[in-house]
Design brief:
Length: 407
């Protein structure tokens, strides 16, 4: 999918699918918004006849700048939908019928959590998608959507405003501190999956017990890996293929599970895991979802809880944490994944005897890092991934020096 603001002919944003066919409804919306200079709004009014409250929709004039921003943010959302691809239900042709949960996943998990967008940017996206789906409701009777920033992500969005105050890289010893403060094996495994495998919070749902078949090929489940763990005492890594339905880009992703982490998974399965017929390794013990696969937000929720717990501990007994990296309210689960990627990139550069500043998108170090993280190497934004790791490598070195000096 691609988009461009056609200021010469159409005078509005144009959105095209992979075959360069215009996306009809988004293009009509852009034409309506940018050329007419209006949007659909609604408010609750008191009906003077019935004396009952009712929702009233009406056209509201907006400026050219507002129209551009609305249609620009819509384009970003459509790009996200086009790359979602982990479900036949979340596609460009079906985007008008997406449930609230998926639309709000874009606002919260993706924009705020993964892209680390500020509260201002997130509010603009909410405004844009609200305008679009209200327009669909008004003219095409598409079910009205409720779009917004979740309360659990509001603080994160505000901390994203602060830029450098939210450090994206967590030192190995900082990650270990998080693992040690987990309140269960389940929590520890989910955190380690982020810090040692580079998993996104949603990808924690993709650890399956039994073998599965995809694209005419069988892939081992964790029960098979547990057997290999017992029979191959010298094996340090175990290959596991994450099913495409649980990954961001709808493509299989290979993980290399360290022996210690697999040991904890095995221990969890044998001792702590609730009795369940679920094929997922990681299942909930909460009363309302007992035995069901953990939610895709479980990693983020767990990280947030332990982060706040550590902040309280450090505040009460600062003398015990003198040589610990500062933990801020801006720290989030995705930083575990980012830290894994940074370490892998940095250590791969050292192994290849190359300076990390010299690495390009065509180098084997970059390609392998992207592969380990499940990035789309062929994406038009692929170069930005390398820049993030180059920046974080410098941050990694600075943080290590600060911890050593403080100690």
């Amino acid at each position: 999918m691609r988009r461009f603001n056609d200021s010469d002919f159409n005078k509005h944003y144009v959105y095209l699918d992979e075959t360069n066919t215009p996306l009809l409804l988004p293009c009509l919306f852009a034409r309506y918004t940018q050329l007419s200079g209006v949007r659909i709004d609604f408010e609750v009014r008191l009906n003077s006849d019935t004396k009952l409250k009712e929702e009233v929709f009406f056209e509201n004039e907006i400026g050219a700048d507002a129209g551009y921003k609305i249609t620009n943010h819509l384009g970003r959302f459509l790009e996200w939908v086009s790359e979602y691809e982990d479900s036949s239900l979340v596609t460009l042709p079906t985007h008008t019928a997406l449930p609230n949960e998926v639309i709000n996943e874009y606002i919260n998990e993706y924009l705020i959590g993964e892209c680390e967008s500020s509260e201002f940017v997130a509010n603009q996206a909410v405004n844009s998608l609200t305008a679009y789906y209200d327009w669909l409701f008004y003219f095409f009777k598409v079910r009205k959507k409720k779009v917004g920033i979740k309360s659990s992500f509001r603080e994160t969005a505000r901390n994203n405003n602060k830029g450098d105050l939210a450090v994206k890289y967590l030192l190995p010893q900082t990650r270990q501190l998080f693992y040690r403060n987990a309140e269960s094996l389940l929590e520890e495994i989910v955190l380690r999956n982020g810090g040692e495998l580079g998993c996104r919070t949603k990808e924690n749902q993709g650890f399956l017990l039994n073998a599965y078949k995809a694209n005419q090929k069988y892939h081992s489940g964790l029960l098979t890996l547990f057997e290999l763990y017992e029979t191959n005492s010298e094996q340090l890594e175990f290959k596991y293929t994450l099913p495409s339905i649980y990954t961001k880009y709808g493509r299989e992703r290979v993980l290399y599970i360290p022996r210690e982490l697999l040991s904890k998974m095995k221990e969890y399965y044998e001792i702590e895991r609730p009795k369940s017929d679920s094929n997922h390794l990681l299942v909930s013990s909460a009363p309302n979802s007992f035995g069901q696969c953990i939610s895709k937000a479980y990693g983020s929720d767990t990280f947030r809880k332990i982060r706040d717990k550590l902040k309280r501990k450090i505040q009460v007994e600062p003398e015990f944490y003198v040589n610990v990296q500062e933990i801020t309210s801006g720290s989030k689960y995705h930083h575990l994944r980012h830290s894994f990627g940074t370490d892998f990139f940095y250590e791969s550069c050292e192994g290849a005897n190359k300076k990390y500043e010299t690495i390009t998108t065509t180098s084997s170090v970059y390609i392998e890092t992207a592969r380990r993280l499940g990035h789309k190497v062929d994406s038009r934004h692929a170069g930005e991934v390398t820049k993030r790791y180059i920046h974080s490598c410098g941050l990694r070195e600075r943080l290590l020096r600060e911890v050593v000096n403080n100690g």
